[in-house]
Amino acid sequence: MCKSCSFVFRIGLREDGEPSLPGVPFPMPPARQQAAAAPQLAAAAPEPAAVAPPPVYLPPPAEPRGVVPGIVTERSALTVILLGMVTCGLYVWWWWYRSTDELRQATGDKSLNPGMDLLLVFLTGGLWGVYVEYRNVKKVHEILSQHDPGRKDRSQTVLIMRIVGLFIAPTAFYAMYLTQEEYNAMARTFGRAS
Prior knowledge:
Layout lengths: L6 E2 L3 E2 L5 E2 L5 E2 L2 H15 L32 H10 L3 H18 L6 H10 L4 H20 L7 H11 L3 H22 L4
Antiparallel strand pairs: 1-4, 2-3
Helix pairs in contact: 2-3, 2-7, 3-4, 3-5, 5-6, 5-7, 6-7
């Protein structure tokens, strides 16, 4: 390549596919001309001043969810089970509704809708109650683990026991026992309103 005139001397084919005779110059394509001139321009251009990177926005750390004290009621887990058996399961439906409502009021969680839960429990013949217990125990665990990070999550145990309880009733009672004990732990942790 001739540095003064930007011509290339090649033998063979040019980049556009046309034959090139030895010693006959042909112009470089425009893209190559710019690339060849770029190092000369870069050397002549002054270096830009150091520019500080834009500030990085970090959201404030999430504060633990507040819980209104004194709303979640402490109940005897054995009483819940016995009333569920004596009323042929009707008390269990009320218990699902009432505990979900207390949890919603205590945490301010708008995703909890005890009325819709009760309707879905009715429409599914009680199957939705399996999910209700699992979800509520999971939410209680998230709240209580803020105060006790080493706390064991019992939501999966409750879910497994409730599913097995569809075939073997005593495991469903054990799941109810665990669920009520989680509510009781929340009631004891947050105590009564001052």
